[in-house]
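Internal tracking record. Fields below are filled automatically when a chain is submitted to the structure queue. Please do not edit lines marked as system-generated. If the sequence contains nonstandard residues, flag them in the REMARKS field before resubmitting.
Queue: standard
Priority: normal
Entity type: single polypeptide chain
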Amino acid sequence: MGKTYYCDYCDRFFKDDVEARKKHLSSMQHVANRESHYSAYKDPETVLREEERKTSCKRFMTGGECAFGLGCRFSHFTPEMMWQLKQIVAMERLKGSTEAPKGGWPNAEHVTMEFLEHRIASSDVEDISPIWCPSPAIGRSHLPPSLESLTLEKITRCTFCKWGDATCTRC
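SYSTEM-GENERATED OUTPUT FOLLOWS
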C-alpha cells in the first residue's frame, strides 16, 4: 500500500507523498486546527489584547452557539470571562514587581517597636493618648480590635487572636 502520514492537528492519516502532504498542510481545516492548538498556549496578556479589539459575537451571546466556532472573527468571551482574564493579567504583572527589597522585608515587630519608642520619646510618658479613638456615640463594648482605641499597653500585650473571637481576653 505505501507509507501513510499522520497529522496530529487534524487527527487523520493520508498517503505520504509530496503532493498529498502539500495539499493537506495548506488546507483551511489544517490551518484552523493548527491555529487552535497553538492558541491554547498563548499568554493571557496576548489573549486579552486580541479579545479587547474584537466586538462580541451576537450569535454566541444570544444562542450560546456560533457556526464559526474558533474561527469566528468576533469575541466569544462574556463580560465575566473578560474580567477574569484582566484579573489574571494584573496578577501576573504584580507577580514580577513584588520582589523583595535588597535588604529583605523589614521585621514587623521591629517596625512597631520603633514607632512606639518614637511616640513615647516625642510625648510625655504619663499622658500617652490613644492614636485613634472612635466617636463616643459608638458602643465600645462590642467593637472589634481594629476599632478600639489603640494604646501602648494593648499593643505590647496583644497576641493578635482571631477576629471576632468573643472568648478572647488578651486584647
